[in-house]
């Protein structure tokens, strides 16, 4: 059960208590976000080559896709400047 569930279950009408619970909810969300960022940073420190490996994997996927389709001009896939790719909406179902 999350804090928001507790708040809803209590059906609080006291605005001071309601405000405190809202602040607690925001604080818990921020703590989760900070912990996630710290974990990402620790992983990047432990495996500094991870970003390069991910980038190479993306490039290999794009190359395989080009070999399969012949080119990228069919516009089923979009590639941005960072090497990220995504399927355009009408074609996503083909790969699910």
From TrEMBL:
Gene3D superfamilies: Phage gp6-like head-tail connector protein. This is DNA-packaging protein.
């Amino acid at each position: 059960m999350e804090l928001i569930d507790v708040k809803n279950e209590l059906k609080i009408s006291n605005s001071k208590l309601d405000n405190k619970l809202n602040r607690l909810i925001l604080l818990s969300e921020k703590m989760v976000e900070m912990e996630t960022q710290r974990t990402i940073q620790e992983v990047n420190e432990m495996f500094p080559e991870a970003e390069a490996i991910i980038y190479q994997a993306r490039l290999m996927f794009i190359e395989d896709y080009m070999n399969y389709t012949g080119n990228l001009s069919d516009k089923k896939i979009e590639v941005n400047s960072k090497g990220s790719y995504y399927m355009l909406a009408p074609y996503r179902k083909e790969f699910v």
